């Protein structure tokens, strides 16, 4: 398994795959959850499941994969 195998898909499926990988490490690795921050309610549910059921210890947040609202600034934009 590599990172490319887990980039797309349902966060719970990715976390399950990571949990299987961690389980094979004889305690050398710890699980880190990944959630879809564009769906906050589901993200909290998945994080809770990952910690309570899978024994994960952290949440991976990748800012450049999360869409951001348009940045607000003090400058006005003028159309041409």
Automatic annotation (TrEMBL):
<dbReference type="Pfam" id="PF04909">
    <property type="entry name" value="Amidohydro_2"/>
</dbReference>
<feature type="domain" description="Amidohydrolase-related">
    <location>
        <begin position="8"/>
        <end position="63"/>
    </location>
</feature>
<protein>
    <submittedName>
        <fullName>Amidohydrolase family protein</fullName>
    </submittedName>
</protein>
<dbReference type="InterPro" id="IPR032466">
    <property type="entry name" value="Metal_Hydrolase"/>
</dbReference>
<dbReference type="InterPro" id="IPR006680">
    <property type="entry name" value="Amidohydro-rel"/>
</dbReference>
